[in-house]
Structure formats: C-alpha cells, structure tokens
From TrEMBL:
The UniProt record lists the keyword Acyltransferase: yes
InterPro entries: CAT-like_dom_sf, Plant_metabolite_acyltrans
Source organism: Eutrema salsugineum (Saltwater cress)
Gene3D superfamilies given in the database record: Chloramphenicol acetyltransferase-like domain
Superkingdom field: Eukaryota
UniProt keywords, alphabetically: Acyltransferase, Transferase
Gene Ontology molecular function terms on file: acyltransferase activity, transferring groups other than amino-acyl groups
PANTHER family in alphabetical order: PTHR31625
Full protein name: Uncharacterized protein
Length: 454
C-alpha cells in the first residue's frame, strides 16, 4: 500500500496554568511487568459517505487535532517519556512543559478501503503502513504515537501505537472512547465514566513485591546484561506468507460451546467457570494446537491477562488508567491433551481452574508462580496468548462520523498473539483476530468453522 505523508503535527496537551512541571508519575508493580513488552499497535477504520480531500482537511482533521489536545490534558502521561534516573530504584513517566504527541497524516491513492478495512483473509503486512512507530529518544521511549490515513472518497483510519506501561487494554479502550466523545460533542468536559483516574497510591501490593519485580525484569528483557534498559523490542519485518484474519463467534455459537462443555465434562457443572471467555479461549487453544500438527509430545501453553482492578484490596477504580493487568500462564501440557475428541473439554477445565484460582490466590502467589514458570518453561513450547476479552467494546468510539467498520490489533503479527473483542453488530458475540502462516491458517480456519458447520 503506497502512502503519501502530507503532514506531521506535534500535538500539545491543552494548557493548564495550575499544573506544575515536570509532571512525574511513578510506575507501579503492574506497570513494571510490561516495561519491555512489544508496543500495542491498533488501527480503527471509519467509512464516510462524504470524504473528499477538502472536507477531510477543513473539517475532520482539525476536529481530530483539537480534540486530541483536549484529551491529552486528561491523559497527560501519554505526552511524556519513560525515564530511569541513576538515583532512582525504578523508572517513571516524566512530562516536561513542551512535550507533545506525534500525529502523522497520510493519504492512500491506490488502496480500496473496503478491502483494506475488511475482516477477511489477507497478507498481514498490508496493515503495517497504517500504524506509526513509537518514537524513542536514546533510551527513553515515548508512550503514544498516532497516524490518520485518508482514503479519498472512501473513509479514513486512525493508527495508534502505545506503550503497555500506561496503556493496558481497558485504558486503551477508555482513551479512544474519551477522545471520540470530545471530538463528537465539541466539549472540553468528560463524563465521570470516561475520566481517567491517575493516582498510583490505589495500587496496594504486599511490601517487597515491587523489588521482586525489579529483580525479575532481566528475564523479560532482550537485553539481559542491562537490567535498567528501557529499550523496546524492534518491530520485525512481517513475512509475506503470514496472513491475518478476523473470525466471529455468534451468541448462538457461544451457547453451543457452553452446552458442549457441560455435556463432555465428568465434573459437576458448578465446579466449572463456564464463562464466554473460558469456552471461547478453550476452543481457540484446541484449534491452534491441532493446526500446528500431530507431534503429540510437543509442549504447549496458553496465556491471558487478568485485570486486577477488582482483585486488590481496596478495589481500584474502574477508570484507573495505567497497566493493572498481569499475565496468567497455563503451562506444563503436551499437545496430545488437545488433539483428541476430549481436547476441547481438557482446555475448558484447565482455563476454568485457572480463572477460578484468581479469586483465591493473592497477587504475590500469582507473581511467584509466574517467575517459576518463566524460568523453567520447556524449550520449544508453543505459547499462544490472548489480548483483550469478549467484553472489549472496540466499536463504541464514534468521533462524529459513525461507528468504526473494523478495528484490528496490528501487533498480532509480531508474536503468537490473538486479539479478542465483542462483535460489532451482535451483543454476546465475539471477534477474534490472529496471524498465521498461510498453510497453517488454512488448517486453522477449517478446524474453527467445521464444528459449527457440521
């Protein structure tokens, strides 16, 4: 896809004479876990009935820029950088008076918007030009970068790349909804449910747990020799044979999966946590293991991020903005557990026990288990992770020109990562995005659809 960059804006947060600089936000235990994680890259597509160059540059773009300035006043840390000063035990987010967020404006002259914004099977690398890179100054990465791409007389897209230390999935959703609200309504005020809560003192974890996390960081970083590095993994070139697809499970499909789990388990139904999240991820895990091949003894694992806003004491406000999730791994399994007819129910019971266990285990126990598993993971383990959940309503961000026609997590092409969200046009349905090599993707799609077609 050929793009022509027409403008690069540096958007400042709306000025506030009462705010003191430098603005410093300390990282919490949860933030630190994601210090060296791949930036999250998302692109959101908006179809327009009227989208000439003239109307885009005179109406749409000014509104997007003005509302972005307003929303950065609320989400001030996103204008800053990560710093780790020599005298400090841990890094922090620092915002200086003239810090800005980069907004690239581009045009596509040859792309068919309907195809680019579709959910169908296509080469993964096609979406890469629609998201920017996260600027890094030395060893001090920024937290947010944006790109708006016009498809003349068709629509536009908003590409968002963000650092995970401040933007977990819930924060990312809320930021986009808040920006859209300001843009659509032409206001500078946010409703309470969209106003970010930034106070880090609400994150209460056992004494000494942050120190343990700091000691664990070298195991998570690509730079094992520099424990204080803030460098992020480089975005790797996506192979031409890697393909992307967004699949849907309707509410009817989800109900069938829950009924299947009840029919196949030998355990009392009340013992199982048969949520949509559990049965859908169990189904995906089973299909992914089968699509890889029949090496029955290869090690396999599945990982999801658990939100701890409602799991700490006292509870953290739902509008808390930052990272408040922790990865939960289901490790120690062989492919043969998922290749047979009982593969689905095995996955259901494993994930059900994992999710139910979050209610009885404190964060310190969960952290210690995580450290043990990372240090002892069997070489060659096929690890799949899911980002998001069936409760993520990514289609509610209306900037004033209608709801998105599609939303894609572009960074799923960088690792074995699935994206999950609520379906656009049906409550209770689920969308799943993933990237695989074409040969493996064909097998996966066949397995995924076969159960419901037969």
């Amino acid at each position: 896809m050929a793009l022509n960059v027409t403008k690069i804006s540096q958007i400042s947060p709306l000025s506030d004479s009462s705010r003191e600089y430098p603005f410093i936000l300390p990282l919490t235990f949860f933030d630190l876990r994601w210090l060296s994680f791949h930036p999250t890259q998302q692109v959101i597509f908006y179809k327009l009935s009227e989208s000439s160059r003239e109307s885009f540059y005179s109406v749409i773009l000014p509104k997007l820029e003005q509302s972005l300035s307003v929303i950065l006043h609320y989400y001030l840390p996103l204008a800053g950088h990560l710093k780790w000063y020599p005298q400090d035990l841990k890094p922090c987010i620092v915002v200086l008076p003239h810090d800005t967020v980069s907004l690239i404006v581009a045009e596509s002259s040859d792309a068919n918007f309907s195809i680019v914004s579709s959910k169908g099977l296509r080469p993964a690398k096609e979406l890469r030009p629609l998201v920017p890179e996260l600027p890094v100054s030395g060893d001090s990465p920024t937290l947010l970068s944006l790109q708006v791409t016009l498809f003349p007389n068709q629509g536009f897209s908003i590409g968002i790349v963000s650092h995970h230390v401040f933007m977990d999935g819930i924060t990312a959703q809320m930021f986009t909804k808040s920006w859209a609200h300001i843009c659509k309504h032409g206001t500078t005020a946010l409703p309470e449910d969209l106003t970010p809560f930034l106070d880090r003192t609400v994150i209460n974890v056992p004494v000494g747990l942050e120190t343990k996390m700091l000691e664990f960081l070298p195991y998570l970083s690509e730079d094992k020799d520099n424990a204080r590095t803030l460098k992020l993994p480089l975005t790797e070139e996506t192979d031409a044979d890697v393909y992307r697809i967004t699949l849907e499970l309707t509410l009817e499909n989800v109900v069938k999966l829950k009924e299947r789990a009840k029919n196949e388990t030998n355990r009392p139904h009340l013992e199982l946590h048969l949520s949509t999240f559990v049965v859908v991820n169990a189904y995906l895990w089973t299909c992914l293991v089968k699509a890889r091949g029949v090496d029955v003894d290869r090690p396999v694992a599945y990982e999801y991020a658990a939100d701890f806003r409602n799991r700490l004491g006292p509870l953290v406000p739902r509008t808390y903005s930052g990272a408040c999730v922790f990865p939960i791994s289901c490790l120690g399994y062989k492919a043969k557990s998922f290749l047979g007819e009982d593969g689905f129910i095995n996955a259901v019971e494993i994930l059900s026990d994992s999710v139910k266990g979050l209610g009885s285990q404190g964060i310190e126990v969960i952290f210690d288990l995580c450290v043990e598993r990372v240090k002892n993971i069997e070489q060659g383990t096929q690890v799949w992770a899911v980002s998001g959940s069936n409760r993520f309503s990514v289609y509610e961000s209306d900037f004033g020109w209608g709801r998105p026609v599609n939303s894609e997590t572009v960074s799923t092409d960088q690792c074995q990562l699935l994206s999950m969200s609520e379906m656009r046009d049906q409550t209770g349905g689920v969308e799943i995005g993933l990237c695989l090599k074409k040969s493996e993707m064909d097998v996966f799609i066949s397995l995924f659809k076969n159960r419901f077609e037969n």
